Amino acid sequence: MIADTSIKELENSSVALTVTVGSETVEKDYQETLKKYASTIQIKGFRKGKAPVSVLEGKFGKAIREESTFNTIEEALKVAIDGVDEKHKPLSFSVPVLQDEESLLPFEANKDVTFTVHYDIMPTFELPQYKGLELEIPAVVVDDEAVDNEIKQLLDQNAMVIDKDGEAAMGDIVTVDYVELDEEGDEVAGTERKEFTFTLGSTSNFYQFDEDVVGMNVDEEKTFSKSYAEDSTVEGYAGKTIQLRVKLLALKFRDIPVLDDEFAQDVKDEYKTVADLLAATREKLEKALEEQLEGAKFTALSEKLIESTTIALPESMIDFEAEQSWKRYLRQIGLTEEQVLKFMDFQGQSREEMLAPMRDQAAKSLRLQLIMDKVKEEEKFEVDEAEVTKVLDEQTQGVTDEEQRAYYRTMIEDEMRFAKVGPFLLENNTFKEGEKVSYATFMDGSYDA
């Protein structure tokens, strides 16, 4: 069927596969297609299926030859791909694209047909050094400040909100009516808010008038000027001075409990004293820090491996991974793509702009996964066959087809081997403490190595 094939590697892990189909095969397929149509087609002056092939060819030969030859090309492509080396097989989500289709036409009788397709393949690359590396992670400890902050949050969570007499102060919870006034003292339409509640000092109100409410009493109404700096974050008000009218409707404060043995016992029966609570809090923070530091080690190692490896990722691979991220994002927010795109259009943002950071992250994740896959193959990790069988039985209940079970077993074994890569890399590299970072900065994710 195929007279010749050749393959050429292109950029970004794609290839050009060129196939030549001999004229004998092309003509054989054409004649069979002619016979098929001759037996079914109705031509004026002849009974259905009785028109001579010569008449059929005279009327529809060009179209039938085109259809037949494209079918021949399709079948030849399947055979050619089956015959290429494993490293040149197309990715499952990369569809071979026929090149210069117009140049193939018109197909002529008794001539070979040579065509070329482009498709993406699995990237090939050299593994970087992945053992014996020395990497730096931040030096972080659970200090007294971290414990104090955790206890403060615990006390705050157990505080009671109580009505307050007297003047409003920072930290109090207030309920207010407010409205912006124009130069004549009239209300500006659309700026009024009724029974708005917030905590003084949180700046969680649009006009950021926290300080202006300090000192007010319940039922007191106050009109004041509010000036905004040139670099103010209040949208549309930078550099402006306006008039606001605010009425304090309710005033409350948070009654924070005292840190004593009684409070410790309320938190947990097993705590008898404040010392018990402090010790348990420190232990909890140290455990959380240990987990976060393990993550920091793996991140530092991942960055090093990615930085040290040249991998030409095919576009189809990045596109596929980014689309998966997009679908996960839609599921997370519980909206349809149409709803999100409509909102993005309102914000002046396109789908491509939304996908851009997802594509960047996809490329990074793919590089790391490919490296870890190659480490898995290089190290030839052993798996516990009894554990594999146990998982197989759990996941294939009701599956009796042995071929199917064998497929699942292979998948489970591969997943188990891959799961060993991360721990193996952490065990076979050294991590030293570098820059000192506070517990709070490190744990809240604001630390950037």
Task: Give the gist of this structure.
The chain is of the alpha+beta class and 449 residues long.
Q: What layout of secondary structure does this protein have?
A:
Layout (H helix, E strand, L loop, with lengths): L1 E8 L4 E8 L1 H16 L14 H31 L13 E2 L2 H4 L8 E8 L13 E6 L4 H14 L2 E4 L9 E9 L11 E7 L10 H4 L7 E7 L13 E15 L5 H7 L6 H34 L7 H19 L3 H10 L4 H29 L5 H11 L6 H18 L1 H7 L2 E7 L2 H5 L6
Parallel strand pairs: 5-11
Antiparallel strand pairs: 1-2, 2-4, 3-4, 6-10, 7-8, 7-10, 9-10
Helix pairs in contact: 1-2, 4-7, 6-7, 8-10, 11-12
Walkthrough of the structure:
- Strands 6, 7, 8, 9 and 10 form a five-stranded antiparallel sheet that branches. A four-stranded antiparallel sheet has the order 1-2-4-3. A two-stranded parallel ribbon has the order 5-11.
- The chain is elongated and about 105 Å long.
- The chain is 47% helix and 18% strand.
- The protein has three domains: 119 residues, Alpha-Beta Plaits (2-Layer Sandwich), CATH 3.30.70; 96 residues, Chitinase A, domain 3 (Roll), CATH 3.10.50.40; 162 residues, Orthogonal Bundle (Trigger factor, domain 2).
- The protein is α+β, with helices and mostly antiparallel strands.
- The chain contains 14 helices and eleven strands.
- A hairpin with a 4-residue loop joins strand 1 and strand 2.
